Structures are given as structure tokens and as C-alpha cells.
């Protein structure tokens, strides 16, 4: 398994941090060239440098807001020009966004969460599918256990809606793309230690809807605390590989049984 992706190219969105970064490192270690799509910031350029220290030329960072159609289209074309094609797509960029009671939520805040998490996923697939169709490939989408449950996720109506939308979208894409040997799967992590809290804004009104729960958010029977991004990267690598050749349209929970509490 150590060099399972030699000669392959992966596009990874949200690759400058957390789950995307860990997955980019993992895929590059296993031989893939990786296109890092993220908002241009120090974390993204640091990730690019870190991977290029593993293997010179393996990574290129692209300044892409995944909710911007033109930027996604352009960066995909630049990736194909640089690396010669696309084999693996990890549509992972996401934000928690503004957490607020529904009646207090600004329409613009609602839309921003859906733009990044849902439109961004759509645009990432829209512009990579023509390239994946050439040789088949693997698409992995990051949803969340919030995609089908709401335990202790107060104020996350927009986030949970976007994450549920990603699950439905995955299933439609898997059906539509099976004829091209493109597999599409969605992963649903529980709490993972990343920088996602930096993308969270809590409104003052949120405290009114928080009710006491038996288990604190992030409790996982399998571990003392949240999971690690590298554990998610192992799953991403498996789903991207030939070992997952009969898996498509699957919704895979990776949460240490958090969602069973
Ligand atoms: P993170 O904040 O560490 O990383 C997310 C990355 O996405 C950041 O580098 C950020 O700059 C980038 N990003 C944000 N908006 C973007 C945009 N418009 N265009 C391009 N890039 C953008 O968070 P993470 O936890 O690694 O999150 C990755 C995915 O995992 C998200 O979809 C998130 O919803 C999901 N997820 C995370 C957890 C968790 O507990 N951390 C749990 C379930 C699901």
C-alpha cells in the first residue's frame, strides 16, 4: 500500500488544514501528486512546502474559494495542465459558519454556510468530472455525522442541512457516474481535532437554545476525546484506492461511536 497512488493526481479542497491537510500528506506519501485547493493563507503554503519536502514537486497550492465557480474551473484546468489529469477528488472544504437559533439567523449567514459546504461540493464535482471520466476515478466528499443526526448541535441548522445535502448529492452522483467507473463516497466524521472551530461564530442568542445533555459534545466511546485527522486520512486513502473498487454511494461514519450515544 505504500506507493498505491504513483502516477495519480488528487485534487483536495480545504487542503491547508485539518482533515484535508492530513489526507493530502497521506496521498502524497503514497505517491500521488496533490493539488491543494484552499483559500490562500500561510497554512496552505506551509502545507505545500511540507509535502514538497516529502517529494519535490508533489504538491501545488491553488488559491481557490470553492464556492466561486470561476476559480474552481480555472484551478482544475491548471491542475490538469501541471499534473496531466485527475484521478482522485476529495471535496472536503467546509465551515461551521454562524451558529444561531433559526429565527435569529441572518439569511446571508445561512446562505454562506450552504455556499461553501454545498455549492462548493457541487462545483468541485462539476469541474472535475470531465477529467475523471477519461480513466474513471474516486471522489470522496466530507459530510459529518451532523448529516443524519443532530445530537448537541444546537444552532447548526445551516451546517446540518448542508451536510445532509452532501449525503444526498453523493448518492445521486454515485448513480450518475457509475457508468464511467467513477466511484463517489461520503465520509461522516464525528468530532476531529482540527482548526474548524476558527470557522465558527456563535451568536449571543445561541445560549437560549442550549439545553443540558448527558454527554458533552465530542464524547466518543472509543477514545478519550476527539479523533485525529490522520485517522480520517487513512479512510480517505482506502476509499481512493483500488481496494475500495466495489464501494460507491456509501456513507461511512468515522466517529468512534459518537453518534451512538
Ligand atoms: P479546518 O478548518 O481545519 O479545515 C478546513 C479547511 O477548509 C481550511 O483550510 C479552510 O481554509 C478551508 N476552507 C474554508 N472555506 C473554504 C472555501 N470557501 N474554499 C476553499 N477552502 C475553504 O476543518 P476540518 O475539521 O479539517 O474540516 C474539513 C471538513 O470536515 C469540513 O467539511 C467539515 O465540515 C468536516 N467535518 C469536520 C469535523 C470536525 O470535528 N473537525 C467533523 C465532521 C465533519
UniProtKB/TrEMBL annotation:
Protein name: 3-oxoacyl-[acyl-carrier-protein] reductase
Signal peptide: none
Keywords for this protein: Oxidoreductase
Record-level Gene Ontology MF annotations: oxidoreductase activity
A biological-process GO annotation: bile acid metabolic process
Key word Oxidoreductase present: yes
NCBIfam families from the UniProt entry: PRK05653.2-4
Family under the similarity heading: Belongs to the short-chain dehydrogenases/reductases (SDR) family.
UniProt cross-references to PANTHER family, sorted A to Z: DEHYDROGENASES, SHORT CHAIN (PTHR24321), ESTRADIOL 17-BETA-DEHYDROGENASE 8-RELATED (PTHR24321:SF8)
